[in-house]
Design goal:
Layout: E1 12-16, E2 21-25, E3 30-34, E4 42-44, E5 55-60, E6 65-70, E7 77-83, E8 86-94, E9 105-125, E10 136-140, E11 143-148, E12 151-158, E13 164-166, E14 169-177, E15 181-190, H1 199-218, H2 227-240, E16 271-272, H3 273-286, H4 289-304, E17 313-314, E18 325-327, E19 338-340, H5 351-364, H6 372-388, H7 407-425, H8 434-451, E20 453-454, E21 459-460, H9 478-481, H10 490-502, E22 504-505, E23 508-509, E24 524-525, H11 526-538, H12 542-553, E25 565-566, E26 573-574, H13 580-594, H14 599-603
Antiparallel strand pairs: 1-2, 2-3, 3-4, 5-9, 6-7, 7-8, 8-9, 9-14, 9-15, 10-11, 11-12, 12-15, 13-14, 16-17, 18-19, 20-21, 22-23, 24-25, 25-26
Helix pairs in contact: 2-13, 3-4, 3-5, 3-13, 4-5, 5-7, 6-7, 7-8, 11-12, 11-13
Length: 614
């Protein structure tokens, strides 16, 4: 299945512990892992450089076929290898802490013989700091340890052969018989002592990790259609929330290409404000009130550093972005450059103001009024929106040849001021400037209706006053989802029709067909397809929406995960993986098809989401 040493992106599955995450290929190789956190440098990055990136392989040493699943309602992966000599099951998990002394981050690989006698092999090849750090290879109490600077990773094994160091990697071979068990574990440390757990403690934490995930998903209240797909998406999102802060990454990877051999390769291990808006909405839908509270207050604390101006993305600790740089890895299937950091943090993207206020509105509807200090901050930000909404920006898609007058950005500025005025009416924002907010919201609406509409296309356009009556943009599908224009408005229906006509290819939807300042092409963004489902459902076209939803659910990989994009010709995954925005859009689409319940109706049933106790 590998091409030049690279597995297809859809052949990966995610395991994580809320602090970092790993990608496990169908052939048993862990090809991506950053330590100690999601946004730390990699230890395994073979997905970005098959030769120099580093990996942890575990597989039969004879020809095999594999099938896999998640243990039901968990993020614990189970892969079954079948050979002519027998079959074996491997269970992979990043374990969750218990009351025992455990390593800082811990990955357990449990091997069970199912039939016959299967020869197995494993290879531990760590390459610290995105492949740039050569490990110091040591033995500590008979355990192989790789260290580099303040980082250390050990590979522990039981009944899994005799490990041997060679060429800065550890390898071993063993046989697994019917009914026998072996175990391997990665334990890590960063600037602290390295802990070597006992096998019994590891097995207990693995069992506890399975129970945690199953109990967590059992507590989710979603009972609508496509519950299994919604539950899997919820588990993905939970794994992508950085538990120490409540922030969430857009994806756990960097630089997986939007086009094989192309240069649209970006680092997504940051928290985007608009993604936080979508995340909090989804968490409220699912009854994840602890996670929603953590995400909201991280949201407010991060933006407090820069208000009344907001930044596009923040680091997981709340710091502002990170300068974009290239690193000397070969790239997935030779798609260069490989980037760390993201220059989008320097852009102006006006839609994020709407994301902030929509989030505050949804949070407030969770049966808890915003506190006075938060209301004052939001009032200052609303005033800032009044000052800047006429400016051009780089838009939701982060165009690098702008700025332009993006229609979606204007509508989201309208959302910001509309929600601010509503919150002021309820006494949650200072009302002294509410009249200005209402007046400016009306001015934005007038601008959109006159400057951002094409009679020829019978649709809103990507950019205001576009030459030749413009082109459409999939971001316009957000209009009915944020309540702009009304479900029965002719212009909203016309825009949906234009997206169907101009951007849709089978089940998939392109973002736009326009120059954005970056060379090369891209696939279809899967979140846009789910946005189309949600837009169709909210304007009453439920049969169309349901049919497309069924088709899209069949496009997930074998364990229910989605990448950022898909090649519409082959169905192959492209872009960073798994992509939070796609799974968020799936949940939103399922909820839109569930019934007419509004966000306000939904969240009025939620318990208090007040500020955490100090």
């Amino acid at each position: 299945m590998r091409v030049d040493g690279y597995a297809p992106i859809e052949d990966y599955a995610l395991i994580g512990d809320g602090r970092t995450a790993a990608l496990v290929a169908r052939d048993g190789a862990i090809d991506w892992l950053c330590l100690p956190n999601l946004d730390s440098p990699s230890v395994f990055a073979a997905i970005l450089d098959a030769t120099r990136g580093g990996t942890f392989e575990l597989q039969p040493s004879v020809p095999f076929q594999s099938s896999r699943r998640y243990i039901p309602n968990t993020n614990v992966l189970e892969t079954t290898f079948t050979t002519d000599r027998g079959s074996v099951r491997v269970v992979d998990a990043m374990t969750l802490p218990d009351r025992r002394l455990e390593a800082m981050r811990e990955t357990v690989r449990s091997v069970e013989g199912l039939s016959g006698t299967v020869p197995m092999r494993w290879r531990f090849a760590p390459r610290f700091h995105y492949g740039a750090g050569t490990p110091r290879c040591e033995w500590r109490g008979g355990i192989p340890v790789a260290a580099c600077g303040g980082d250390a990773v050990a590979v522990m094994s039981w009944e899994a052969g005799t490990p041997v160091w060679a060429d800065h990697e550890v390898h071993a071979q063993f046989e697994i018989r019917d009914g026998s068990r072996a175990m391997l574990a990665l334990t890590s440390a960063y600037a602290e002592p390295l802990v070597f757990p006992q096998r019994e403690a590891l097995a207990a934490r693995l069992d506890g990790t399975v129970r945690f995930w199953q109990q967590w998903i059992d507590a989710r209240r979603y009972q609508g259609p496509w519950r299994d797909a919604v539950a899997r998406s919820a588990l993905v999102l939970k794994a992508l929330i950085f538990s120490p802060s409540g922030a969430s990454v857009a994806a756990p990877t960097t630089s997986l290409p939007e086009e094989i051999g192309g240069e649209r390769n970006w680092d997504y291990r940051f928290c985007w404000l608009r993604d936080s808006n979508f995340m909090i909405d989804a968490l409220l839908e699912l009854g994840c009130y602890d996670e929603a509270r953590s995400s909201f207050w991280w949201f407010m604390h991060a933006t407090a550093l820069t208000e009344p101006d907001l930044h596009v993305l923040y680091r997981l600790d709340g710091a502002i972005g990170m300068a974009e740089r290239e690193i000397p890895l070969d790239g997935y299937r030779h798609s260069r450059p490989v980037r760390v950091g993201n220059a989008a943090f320097q852009q102006t993207q006006l839609d994020i103001y709407g994301a902030l206020f929509e989030t505050a509105w949804l949070y407030s509807e969770g049966h808890h009024a915003l506190d006075y200090d938060t209301g004052v901050v939001l009032g200052r930000i609303a005033d800032r929106v009044c000052d800047i909404w006429r400016q051009p920006d780089s838009g939701i898609w982060e165009a690098r040849n702008g700025p332009f007058q993006f229609t979606h950005s204007k509508v989201m500025c309208w959302v910001a001021l509309d929600r601010a005025a509503r919150l002021a009416d309820r006494g949650e924002l200072p009302a002294s400037h509410a009249e200005r907010w209402t007046r400016e919201a009306a001015a934005i609406e007038q601008y959109v209706e006159t400057e951002c509409w094409s009679d020829r296309l019978r649709s809103y356009t990507r950019i205001a006053g576009s030459p030749g009556n413009g082109v459409v943009d999939a971001s316009l599908l957000r209009l009915p989802l944020v309540g702009y224009g009304g479900a029965d408005a002719e212009r909203v229906h016309g825009t949906i029709d234009a997206v169907n006509r101009d951007l849709r290819r089978g089940d998939f939807v392109y973002r736009y067909h326009a120059d954005d300042g970056v060379p090369g092409g891209e696939g279809c963004f899967l979140n846009c397809s789910f946005w189309l489902v949600g837009a169709l459902a909210r304007v009453g076209r439920r049969d169309e929406a349901g049919a497309l939803m069924e088709s899209l659910l069949a496009r997930a990989n074998d364990v229910g995960l989605y990448s950022e994009e898909v090649d519409p010709q082959t169905g192959a995954f492209l872009g960073n993986f798994p992509q939070a925005l796609v799974h968020l859009a799936l949940i939103e689409a399922a909820c839109a098809l569930r019934g007419p319940e509004t966000p306000a109706q939904r969240t009025r049933r939620a318990p208090s989401l007040g500020a955490p106790q100090r």
